[in-house]
């Protein structure tokens, strides 16, 4: 059976980390660059499921001497996303309904925020997320989990992602892989509809 497998960030939604860092700096004595240096080494273990949400939040807030509550921190941490309007239109006007799955390096707070705030996610029937999978793209393990959980045939699965390394793994494993550019949506729209019609 044909299926869709979509990354989230810079595919379904865009994001601006600078917005979050700027707002965090308003609540911290540290500079924006210093906050980046605090957050960066925590982000990968958090998104790969090797660090709990509670530990990530505590260590982040403590390291930057954050002036506010856990809820304040998470509000800023999550409020970095915007809907990719052309993608929303494409998904709303597909000529036929196909099983569709999310496939993202992400974390619990971001995922909850996205699923609650953006109606575009109603098109999807589930997903593989790095913090739950305990591994991250472009490692094969993420793709193997998607294949196993959703019964995907890579040759019959249209995979969209914005990062070249992730697309390279997708191609090597046999997915119909499209490197998405959020600043140039029209070629994607055409490619997806041609694939569906083929």
If you average the pLDDT, what whole number results?
97
In the CATH hierarchy, the third-tier topology of the largest domain is known as Rossmann fold
CATH superfamily of the largest domain: HAD superfamily/HAD-like
Strand content: 5-15%
How are the strands of the biggest sheet laid out side by side? Answer: 5-4-1-6-7
Nearest-angstrom radius of gyration? 18 Å
Mind describing the biggest β-sheet? 5 strands, parallel
Give a short summary of the structure:
50% of the residues lie in helices and 14% in strands. The protein has ten helices and seven strands. The radius of gyration is 18 Å and the shape is elongated.
What report would you give on this structure?
- It is built from ten helices and seven strands.
- The chain is 50% helix and 14% strand.
- The protein folds into two domains: 3-14 and 83-197, HAD superfamily/HAD-like (Rossmann fold, 3-Layer(aba) Sandwich); 17-78, Orthogonal Bundle (DNA polymerase, domain 1), CATH 1.10.150.
- The strands form two sheets. Strands 5-4-1-6-7 form a five-stranded parallel β-sheet, with helices on both faces. A two-stranded antiparallel sheet has the order 2-3.
- With 198 residues, the protein is of the alpha/beta class.
- The radius of gyration is 18 Å and the shape is elongated.
- Helix 6 (108-117) links the parallel strand 4 and strand 5 (127-129).
- The protein has helices spanning 17-25, 32-47, 53-63, 70-78, 85-92, 108-117, 130-133, 140-150, 164-172, 186-197; strands at residues 3-6, 13-15, 81-83, 100-104, 127-129, 157-161, 176-179.
């Amino acid at each position: 059976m044909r299926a869709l497998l979509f990354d989230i960030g810079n595919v379904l939604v865009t994001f601006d980390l600078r917005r979050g860092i700027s707002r965090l700096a308003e609540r911290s004595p540290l500079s924006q660059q210093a906050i980046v240096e605090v957050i960066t080494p925590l982000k990968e273990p958090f998104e790969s499921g090797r660090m709990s949400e509670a530990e990530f939040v505590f260590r982040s807030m403590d390291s930057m001497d954050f002036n506010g509550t856990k809820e304040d921190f998470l509000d800023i941490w999550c409020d970095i996303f915007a809907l990719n309007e052309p993608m929303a239109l494409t998904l709303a006007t597909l000529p036929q309904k196909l099983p569709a799955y999310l496939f993202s390096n992400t974390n619990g707070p971001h995922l909850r925020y996205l699923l609650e705030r953006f109606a575009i996610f109603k098109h999807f029937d589930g997903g593989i997320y790095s913090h739950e999978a305990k591994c991250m793209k472009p490692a094969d393990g993420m793709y193997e989990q998607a294949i196993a959980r959703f019964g995907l045939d890579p040759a019959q699965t249209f995979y969209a992602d914005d990062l070249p390394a992730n697309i390279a793994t997708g191609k090597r494993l046999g997915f119909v892989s499209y490197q998405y550019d959020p600043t140039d949506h029209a070629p994607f729209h055409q490619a997806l509809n041609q694939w569906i019609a083929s």
